[in-house]
Specification:
By secondary structure, the chain is an all-alpha fold. It has one domain. It is 80% helix and 2% strand. It has 17 helices and two strands. The protein has a two-stranded antiparallel ribbon with strand order 1-2. α12 runs antiparallel to α15. The relative contact order is 0.13.
Length: 468
C-alpha cells in the first residue's frame, strides 16, 4: 500500500477546512465591519471599541473553549459510529453553554476591572459600558451557537455552519450602519430619525443578529433529516446528564483556559496600550484585526485536522491519526509563511483600506513589521494545540501557554513597552514593544507545543510497536 503523501492528506483536509475558513472569515468580518465603521465615526468610539472588544473577547473565548470540548469528544464518538452518544453530547453542551452564560453576562455588565486595567478616560469608559451592556445580550446566543458549531464540525458537516455565519454577516452590515451612524430621512409620513450610537450600535446589532442565528440553527436541528441518526429528542432538550457534563468540563476547562490565555495575551495588550492614548490603541486595533483575518486560515486547517484526527482515533486507526496530525501541521506552516510574506510586502496599502487617518496609519505600520514571524508561529501553535485536543490532551498545552504567552509575551511586553528596566531601545517603546514580545512568546509556544506533539506521537508509535 502506498504511503499517503502531503498532497493526499491536503485533499482530505480541504473539504472540511474551506467551509470553516469562510465561516470564520464571516465571524471575524463582524469585528472588521465594526472597526471600519467606528473608525469613520470617531476616534473616541474606536478606542472604546478596542477596549470593549478586548474585554468581551477575553470573557467569551474562555467560555467558548469550554463548550468546544464537544468537538473532540463527539468526533471520536462519530468515528466509532456511536451516533446516538454523539447526539446526547450536543444537548449536554447546550446545557453547559446556558450555565456559562450566567457567569459571562455578569462580567460584561460589571466591567470595572477591565476599565481599571485600561485606565480609560471617563468619555471612553462610558462608551465601553454601553457597548458591553449590549453584548451581554449577545453572549448566551453566541455560546449556544458554539455548541452547534462544534458538533457539526466534528461530524464533518461544516457547510451548514458556514451558511448560517454568512447569513448573519449579510444581516449585520445594514443593521450595523443604521445603528452606528444613525438615520435622518424625510418620508411622506414625516421625518424618520434614529440616533447615531457609535460603538454601542455595533453591540446592539450583534446581539440582534446572533439571536436570530441561534433560532435558525435550532430549527435546522429539528427539521434536517441528517440529524435523525443522532437520535435527538423530538422536542426540547434532553435532561441534564452530570456524567457527560463532567466529561465536557474535564476537557473543556483546560481548553477554555488555554484559549483564554492565548487570546487575553493579546486583548490585554489593547488594555495596556490604551494607557498610551487613543491613537496608539486605534493603531493597535487595526493591526490586531488584520492579523486576526490572517489567522482564519490556520484556524480552519486546525479545525479540519483535529476533526479528522479525532475521527481516526475513534475508528481505532492511530497510524492514520498521527499522519494526518503531522501533515496538517506542515501544511499550515507552509501556507502561513506565504501569507505572512505577502501581507508584509503590501502592509501600507492594507492599512489604508482601514482608514485615511495618517496618524493612525503611522501608529499601526510599525506593528505590522512583526507580522511574518508572528503569523508563522501562530499557525504552528494552533495546529499543534488542536491536534493535541483531538487526543483529549489539554493540560500540558495550558502550562506552555501560561509560560510563553502570559509570562514572556504579555509580561515581557509590559516590561519592554513601558521601559521598566530602563534599557528598552526607543523603537520598541510603546505598542511596538508589546508586539515584539508577543511574537517571541508565540514563537516559544509554537516550539513547545510542536515538540510535545512530536514526543507524544513518537511514544504512541513506540508503544504500538511493542504490542505488535
Amino acid at each position: 500500500m502506498t504511503r499517503p503523501t502531503l498532497l493526499t492528506t491536503a485533499r482530505r483536509i480541504a473539504p472540511l477546512a474551506w467551509p470553516v475558513f469562510i465561516g470564520q472569515i464571516a465571524v471575524l468580518a463582524f469585528s472588521t465591519v465594526d472597526t471600519v465603521m467606528v473608525a469613520r465615526f470617531s476616534s473616541l468610539d474606536l478606542a472604546a471599541l478596542a477596549v470593549g472588544s478586548a474585554a468581551y473577547v477575553s470573557i467569551f473565548v474562555g467560555l467558548m473553549g469550554v463548550v468546544l470540548a464537544i468537538s473532540p469528544i463527539t468526533g471520536q464518538l462519530f468515528g466509532a459510529d456511536k451516533h446516538a452518544e454523539a447526539g446526547r453530547q450536543l444537548h449536554q453542551a447546550i446545557w453547559l453553554a446556558l450555565g456559562l452564560s450566567v457567569i459571562g453576562c455578569a462580567l460584561l455588565l460589571f466591567p470595572a476591572p477591565f476599565l481599571a486595567i485600561a485606565r480609560t478616560s471617563p468619555e471612553v469608559a462610558e462608551r465601553v459600558r454601553a457597548y458591553l451592556g449590549a453584548l451581554a445580550f449577545a453572549l448566551p446566543s453566541s455560546l449556544l451557537f458554539t455548541a452547534f458549531r462544534g458538533f457539526n464540525t466534528s461530524v464533518s458537516r461544516p457547510k451548514i455552519v458556514m451558511r448560517l455565519q454568512l447569513g448573519a454577516l449579510v444581516a449585520k452590515l445594514p443593521l450595523n450602519a443604521l445603528l452606528v451612524f444613525g438615520l435622518d430621512l424625510a418620508t411622506p409620513f414625516g421625518r424618520l430619525h434614529t440616533p447615531a450610537l457609535g460603538a454601542q450600535g455595533c453591540g446592539i446589532a450583534t446581539a440582534l443578529v446572533i439571536g436570530v442565528q441561534v433560532m435558525v440553527a435550532w430549527r435546522v436541528l429539528r427539521r434536517d433529516p441528517f440529524y435523525a441518526g443522532f437520535h435527538l429528542p423530538p422536542r426540547g432538550l434532553a435532561a441534564v446528564d452530570l456524567k457527560s457534563i463532567r466529561e465536557l468540563l474535564r476537557l473543556g476547562i483546560p481548553m477554555g483556559l488555554s484559549i483564554a490565555i492565548e487570546v487575553t495575551g493579546f486583548t490585554f495588550m489593547a488594555l495596556f496600550i490604551s494607557r498610551l492614548g487613543t491613537t496608539p490603541v486605534a493603531g493597535h486595533q487595526i493591526a490586531v484585526n488584520l492579523v486576526s483575518l490572517m489567522f482564519m486560515m490556520p484556524l480552519a486547517l486546525a479545525n479540519a485536522t483535529s476533526v479528522l484526527v479525532a475521527q481516526r482515533i475513534g475508528a481505532d486507526d492511530p497510524r492514520d491519526a498521527r499522519r494526518i496530525g503531522w501533515h496538517g501541521l506542515q501544511i499550515g506552516v507552509l501556507i502561513a509563511s506565504a501569507m505572512g510574506g505577502l501581507v508584509y510586502l503590501i502592509r501600507d496599502s492594507l492599512l489604508r483600506a482601514y482608514t485615511a487617518d495618517e496618524v493612525v496609519i503611522a501608529a499601526a505600520l510599525p506593528l505590522l513589521g512583526w507580522v511574518m514571524l508572528f503569523h508563522i508561529a501562530d499557525a504552528a501553535q494552533t495546529l499543534a494545540a488542536f491536534t493535541l485536543r483531538a487526543y483529549r490532551i489539554a493540560t500540558v498545552p495550558l502550562v506552555i501557554y501560561a509560560v510563553a504567552i502570559w509570562g514572556v509575551g504579555l509580561g515581557g511586553g509590559y516590561v519592554v513597552a513601558f521601559d521598566l528596566l530602563g534599557v528598552t531601545p526607543k523603537p520598541l517603546l510603546g505598542a511596538t514593544g508589546f508586539w515584539s514580545a508577543a511574537t517571541v512568546g508565540l514563537t516559544l509556544a509554537g516550539a513547545g507545543l510542536c515538540s510535545f506533539m512530536v514526543w507524544m506521537m513518537r511514544n504512541q508509535r513506540n508503544a504500538a510497536a511493542r504490542l505488535a
